[in-house]
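To whoever is on call:

I kicked off a structure prediction for a single chain this morning and the downstream step that reads the tokens threw a length-mismatch warning. I double-checked the sequence; it's 90 residues and nothing unusual in it as far as I can see. Pasting both halves so you can look.
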Amino acid sequence: MLASDLLGRTVHDRRGRPLGLVADLLAEPDAEGRPRVVRVLVTPRRRGRLLGYERPGLQRPWVIEKLSRLLHRGTREVAWEDVDWSPRED
């Protein structure tokens, strides 16, 4: 499976509640230094590109900060194990 197979998919939490669309996959190195996906970035809407501005802790010009918050409200990181990837008929 490729990352591109997962990006853009609608996912749900373990209780079946919709989380949103997969915008990105976040990895960390495992014990051997290989990347392992640990979190999923989900967004409630398909509008616009993220460009990394939705991530907390980044310093950016205040205008971009305000615009980013407006455009990407509801975008959040969810632990990989908390995402249900099963296809659903909504």
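Update from on-call: the warning came from a stale cache, not from the record. Cleared it. Sanity check on the structure: The two ends are 24 Å apart (CA to CA).
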